[in-house]
Amino acid sequence: IYSRFTVNEHTFQKAGTSQQCGVCLQLVRRDALLSLPCQHSFCKACWEQHCTVLVKDGVGVEISCMAQECSLRMPDDFVLPLLPSEELKDKYRRYLFRDYVESHFQLQLCPGADCPIVIQVQKPRARRVKCSLCKEVFCFKCRQMYHAPTDCATIRKWLTKCADDSETANYISAHTKDCPKCNICIEKNGGCNHMQCSKCKHDFCWMCLGDWKTHGSEYYECSRYKENPDIVNQSQQAQAREALKKYLFYFERWENHNKSMQLEAQTYQRIQEKIQERVMNNLGTWIDWQYLQNAAKLLAKCRYTLQYTYPYAYYMESGPRKKLFEYQQAQLEAEIENLSWKVERADSYERGEPSDLENQMHIAEQKRQTLLKDFHDT
């Protein structure tokens, strides 16, 4: 890649008379002026100062001619000899390298912090890629966190909206709610949304506070937003309130799954420590307990997909396709919570009895794959 950046000195203008530099206004010999293809000429000292300041300021490769209203980009082999130190030359070469990668449709820079890796694919599209060095997982097309089934443009809109409306949604950030039966304050310290009150043993849904048992076959009906069909005929203030209500509904669920993933990451760590303890106590090998680790990893993958279904649903137009999506979303969410419930109680599993947990893993992954197959545009 660097071969295209070979440095060649530009020639000075040849003439015997003097001329005033248009920047410093000093009278210099014409053969001491340096000229671009646009025929604008200035003294070498001014060109050097111009390039040095812009490279230090991080302008990148878009360094234009100093002449007023001239937008000609200065050639790479013109800029490099003018930079006074190797440090600045190396900085500019990095800009050139980045510019080359960003202009190549099959290449993408890893967005990981200070990661130098460039990733190449044969068929550029919104696909999941993982850096071999820093292990960052991202979308190849937009370099955001991978966001299937939501497309790149929609996730950008959603993340911008979340940032803009963060103050409005601050009240959602509380980790505590009251038990709907005995009113004792309950803190959510696990990723699962199936809650059980420590005092009265009442089982309820963390999201809607409804009785868990009455979710029945319609698990996670509370994940569907019920639109007001008459809102278009109401006042602007009413429409604004309805729009905010809809956004907060989806934002709360988006944020809740994000927090669940953080809590389940702690569960994964506890599982690893528990496996290590059992192996050290000769209660089996790592292979015997590997299914617990696999279950926690799959749970993280499934919940990650589920989190990104909410921006997708927020921007979807009402209709049969959205109803189908919400049905599959509810099915996936139900199976993820069943899996989370089992993973958080992994300590109770004995060696040689993984079938119940493995069955739940298979069901959850099947639901995830079905939703992506039907709604993720590839």
TrEMBL record:
Keywords: Metal-binding, Nucleus, Repeat, Transferase, Ubl conjugation pathway, Zinc, Zinc-finger. InterPro entries: Ariadne, BRcat_RBR_TRIAD1, E3_UB_ligase_RBR, IBR_dom, Rcat_RBR_TRIAD1, TRIAD_supradom, Znf_RING, Znf_RING/FYVE/PHD. Residues 17-226, 182-222 form the RING-type domain. It is an enzyme of class 2 (transferase). It comes from the Eukaryota. The keyword Repeat applies. One of its GO terms (molecular function) is ubiquitin protein ligase activity. One of its GO terms (biological process) is protein ubiquitination. It catalyses: [E2 ubiquitin-conjugating enzyme]-S-ubiquitinyl-L-cysteine + [acceptor protein]-L-lysine = [E2 ubiquitin-conjugating enzyme]-L-cysteine + [acceptor protein]-N(6)-ubiquitinyl-L-lysine. Belongs to the RBR family. Ariadne subfamily. This is RBR-type E3 ubiquitin transferase.
